[in-house]
Amino acid sequence: MGASRITITLDEGLLKRLDHLVQVVPYSSRSRAIQEAVEDKLRKANKDDFERELVKLDPQFEQEMADEGLGEDVLEWPEY
What we know:
Layout: H1 12-24, H2 30-54, H3 59-67
């Protein structure tokens, strides 16, 4: 996937911390450090969304749905 150029504004203190991180880790650039931070944040947000949806499930109902039609009289999966 191609990259797009964006402009962001950072607090001076945050920028100093970013520059220090780029030197210590080392990242190839500020852009690379910011890109990885955004990727991590999005990954965590997606995980949080998944966990929020997961708690809405009723385990007993889900098990009943999974077991439906799996009686001894079913010898093979039905064709779709």
